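Progress report, Aim 2. The chain analyzed during this reporting quarter is listed below.
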Amino acid sequence: MPAATERLPRTVNGVLAQSQVMEVLGELDRDLVGLAPVKQRIRDIAALLVIDKLRTNVGLSAHAPSLHMCFTGNPGTGKTTVAMRMAQILHRLGYVRKGHLVAVTRDDLVGQYIGHTAPKTREVLKKAMGGVLFIDEAYYLYRPENERDYGQEAIEILLQVMENQRDDLIVILAGYQDRMDTFFQSNPGMSSRIAHHLVFPDYSGGELLHIADKLLEGMSYRFGPGARDAFDSYLGLRSCQPHFANARSVRNALDRARLRQASRLFADADRELTADDLTTLAEDDIRASRVFALSLAQ
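Predicted structure tokens for the chain:
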């Protein structure tokens, strides 16, 4: 046993090399544009876990930190992606057995009749054990206006597991900031079990355009002359409209632009198409969006 203890890393770099956590943090930086405060908080949590690991390696008592979290922010700000990376970090440092992510909503946990909720919730928890359970729009679990709602039963089961099996399951609650605040006020037991609150800001216009560049590159597309400026104008208009979902809306807009490009190329059926034709979004493919038409009509 002493020989095995001596082989355990006793430096930060030693633990990082053994766990390869820096690879995950690097992927987080590459995958997500912006979100500097969120990335810093994830690095801080990783640092805490590394130091905790070192305490164990040198024989000091180590009390496993509470790692349940809350991610708040608007749709499309990277909450699910960060949760996936967090699961990988926890796994590589030995805080969860598997490191997988199970993402659910109210419908996956709450039943519609008596006796239905408990087995549904426990089945989800069984799948998530050894990893991270990500509950999106978690505030929908609590509906005090409906006395026959079964969401409270799911909350009580979650609370029990979050306390008693926190060494084998990490729960991340996610949703809009104001609604999560109300949820925690109504469920103090849940609030007391959440150690880390991460706020995901909306992306700036420049960040949204950078996201578009990265998405197109990943799909082997590019903006043609004038198209990138047109998309920048599109983002300025679309972000002021209802139901704008940050990176999710960027992806949807690019998918629609690809549809318009495909229709344009399809209509010219006899022309031999080059790789440049097939990979370029033209300015007209962007400006044909109804977002521009709506702005002119107002």
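The CA atoms of residues 31 and 81 lie 8 Å apart. The mean pLDDT is 92. These observations will guide the mutagenesis work planned for the next reporting period.
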